[in-house]
Batch of 4 targets.
Target 1
Amino acid sequence: MIIWINGTFGVGKMTAAKGLQKRIPGSDIFDPESVGQLLREQLPSTRTYSDFQDEPLWRELTRVILERSNQSGNRTVIVPMTVTNPTYFDEIVGELRRRGHLVHHVSLMASSSTVKRRLLRRFERPDSWGGQQADARIQALTDPLFNQHIQTDRLTKQGVVDAIALSCDLHVAPPCRKRLF
């Protein structure tokens, strides 16, 4: 199974992915951003794109890596990645589904002010690349293609993980409670 966690930059995708991984034994996180970084470092032609998602090879490699990691069929791969271009989403998620892979998709949503506050908490300025993209990505995620929304403005980190599990009909371990003694 693949769980794709979509959402604008700063909404909490990686935090949610890490929380979900802790509660799904044997699960792994795959960050397609690392594929984009690899292509930028190794292929001079990808430097012409302001967004590595525009590089067709990024979409192909992301899909192939997910396909290979999901071949055994008994592990869960969690993918925290912003993809708001419907064509690109179909090339990856749609194609994985057409090839018989179980892919759950959720879009983490939050108000622009919440996203900007979260960006600042991680020491990223609102005028960073992600901050500049936030409002347009929030709007793009209203497309019905991305309609499995989880409104995160008032949820705790564990609340977001619980909401993802509920949305994907997953049975997850309860959150770890730290013991005082």
Note: Residues 56-69 form the longest helix (14 residues).
Target 2
Amino acid sequence: MDAIFSSIADLAAAIAKRKISAVEALDAHLAQIDSHNGAVNAVISLDREGARERARNADAAVARGEALGPLHGVPFTLKDTHETAGMKTTVGYPPFADYVASHDSPVVARLKAAGGNLFAKTNVATMLSDWQSNNPLFGRTSNPWNLERTAGGSSGGAAAAVAAGMTPFDVGTDMQDSIRLPAAFCGVYGLKPTERRVSLAGAFPDPTGAARSVRLMSCLGPLARSVDDLSLIYRIIAGPDGRDTDLAPVPVEAMPKLDLQTVRIAFASTFPGFPVAGDISAAVENLARQLQSDGATVEETKLPRLDLHDDLAQGGALIGMMMEAAQPEPPEEPTPVSRWFGALARRDRSILAWDALFESHDALLCPVAMTTAFPHCEPGAPIKVDGQGQNYWMIPAYGAVFNYSGHPALSMPCGQDGVGLPIGLQLVGKRWSESRLLGVARAMTALAGGFNRPPGY
């Protein structure tokens, strides 16, 4: 079997049936890293010997006939933000260069309990603060489709590693499109669940035990090469965990098998005032037409009556207030509590407006970002979209709208642009409806095209 591009379930089944050993599966991924990571620079903090020992133990468990978890013996990586016992967590930030947590975050613990073998971390933007993955500790991650282009950020290392076959899956963080944008740039799938669906405990290094300030808009979710793989990892990591008290006890359901004739899709090839490349808007419209031809109920939607630019500004203000609360010393003029509650009330109006749209539609099909993977550049430099310079800080706007609203959204590959780079489209659903949203995405996969290996991998 092709261990490095198999589905997670197929790889786990092959290990369980002793068609391939966990050691062989690990070694196949390590060989892929040795062949390609020098150019891509997606994988960091590699634990070869520890992972090999764990793989041998996994094979021994199979030989003893023990009960196996759904990830038994499957090697995997994690974005370099999750706290992991015995492995550095740096977020690309020099003061955290040697930080090792005393215990695993709940998400890490669940993946390990399911049988997964964590063998490396993946590269990020410094402190997760950019849409290119570059930092002073590990350098710059490149896109496996074109090394002159970015893999995106802040989960760029995760997306590039999944696309290049260096790992079967990863788990990223997403406060402003940071899972979906790199997934789109690298041609893989990425899911941002509903806010407060997956534990944020231990999702960022915390050497001093400070109070957790990031409590809104940020989500954890998987990156993988198929909808089925997204669903598998999502179901493992979602739900209350005993540490993050913000999590809602909403059942985590299995992904349904849907017929397109039962699906109601709204689509928008652009949002008012948001730039977008012509190849991307055309991909939205072409897929919408194909879905309609195959029996889905499809309509070009009238978006909620919202000032989406103001939503982005308000989201940025909320992030700023959370970051202010995380500072060791309060500012001379701290934000008044009334402003915080006013910002939450403004956000509620946006959430309810989007909720109304999803009362009559299963999903909204729209862009993930204004462009495909752009050339490496200095943060803040104008980005060319169809030859016209656009504001760098608008790169994640289409995705960040749904961080502000809290709705689940995923990025799915949908062909390539005129220069051969992957196009990713966004599918957004009703809050708490990840399983149905994933089912809609799977029903659309044959028309959208699914994952393709980058050339040379």
Note: The chain has a mean pLDDT of 96.
Target 3
Amino acid sequence: MIIMETERLKLREFNDDDITALYSIFSDAETMKYYPAPFTLLQTKNWIKKNKQRYREDGYGLWAVYLKESNELIGDCGLVKQIVDGKAEVEVGYHINKKYWSKGYATEAAKGCVEYGFTHLGQEKIISIIDPKNEASIRVAEKNSFMKDKESFIFSKMHHIYSVQKNKYNED
């Protein structure tokens, strides 16, 4: 089921046929630099399973990101519920195959997901949890009107929490 289309991308729910392509991304050490370790095949299968559960329970999750022109899976992007400092938040997150870095795909996919969160889910605020050393993700957040809110200890280490309010989104 296609969730949305952007200029160059399609985002849809994951299915079991995506495991091999997603594993090739998640098993790469450079792509997973800000995670504790690259994913095993089992962790990748569980990632897809967890997102299918999110689709059922929340109505959203991380979606498969495909190039429109080739139908190649290049990563994931979507919205997930997170608890930050005891408060429920909705986060936009993504992983893009490193051979497609610096082409604007993460920014484009994240923008589509943020707009989806505001328009279809009625969110007033969306966050992004970013490792302070992850300069590429910081740039993606800033290109999508996110501002650094605070620092928070989450996922076993300190992260920067960026956010954007619906009423401030893309006002520039």
Note: The chain has a mean pLDDT of 94.
Target 4
Amino acid sequence: MSRLVVVSNRLADPRKPAAGGLAVALGETLNRTGGLWFGWSGTVLEGGTPGEGELHRQQAGTVTLATVDLCKEDHDSFYLGYSNGVLWPVFHYRLDLAHFDAGHVAGYRRVNQLFARKLLPLLRDDDTIWVHDYHLIPLAAELRAMGCRQKIGFFLHIPLPPQQILAAIPQHEWLMRSLFSYDVVGLQSETDAMHFARYVQGELGAQALGEHMFRAFGNTIRAQAFPIGIDVDEFAALTHAKDARDTYLRMREEYARRRLLIGVDRLDYSKGIPHRIRAFRELLAHYPENRDSATLIQIASPTRESVEAYNDIRQELEGLCGAINGDYGELDWMPIRYIHRVVARKRIPGICRAAAVGLVTPLRDGMNLVAKEYVAAQDPADPGVLVLSRFAGAAEQMREALLVNPYDAHGTAEVIQRALRMPLEERRERHQKLLQGIREQDVHWWRKSFLDALAQMPRP
């Protein structure tokens, strides 16, 4: 088997599965092939020359971790300016939050060229390269321009918007054309794959060669949905470990008289947290039997707090939670418990298991693995109910969840009420089917499906 080379903006030690989803998914193949994981070191140098950065290498068992430093100018334009100031909002359908500064795209390309220059000498002739996410869309084009002829795959972890939204990005043709330097382009959902097909045919004049195959600019690529999953057994093991079990027992004792609802998100405008809080207020207003009974625990981990949009959403969220607690709270009951900090991953399964309803209601999400983790954490004999946004990629797979439109606060409240009153037999039946689905298409299935598709493509 050829060596796997993974390229992503940030790295994780594959010896530590809890470090993140990519580490869980790719660690097995990286370790087996003596692989290489390449990306940004996380270091931002105040001085330094744009387009330059020192390469660092270290061993993590059989895996080589190779990282590059960025100067402040490159970091600000590549990461803050273009990746998170343009691509993140546009790909999540938020043109109103995008900042189309002409200088940012130059920095974005400059860092991708830097990564290509630093990576190329580390490659072996028979390596298989797998590039991840929106930070590195043009990386294969830069590698090809430098003579790279290895197979290269790309996976987009966030949604791909429709043609008309993509076309609002200045230089969108250059950005999307660069995807034709890959051999396989992986997307999270069938909706994303449909958007890709319509864009490349409508804007780039690509020819569809049959199912999933497209040709343009002298290259043939495969583009299809490979929905990412979780390691169900690993998360189940976390659920039964001491930290999660202690958390579960403590919450069951503390909330013995309450029905718990749980939301676990990064504080991001794509997650629809204020919309969820408004739906909970509708629940209390129109179904008064939930007063002094239902408690929503909303964990909103800090993220990108230097960006103005995130400060705005934090203020909005804190105002909403305070108003609802003030209007409906009692001396011994607080409707919403809002937590704006990182909660240890090892405790999350216990919180999920204690919750009668899991609320995963993003306005737009590539997949959303919290939905799958909530299902994996449940007690099959007495499972909770997953309420899931129809705009999460996970909704295509998880049809037995209760699907909602998060923009409809009253409609979402009605579905939450249905979840709270759902009979045990129906809860068990839905949970069994959901669990079966996330087991069949888990993170190992995702990795194997993508790498098998890449292996079947002819060498460039």
Note: Residues 232-440 form a domain with the Rossmann fold fold (CATH 3.40.50.2000).
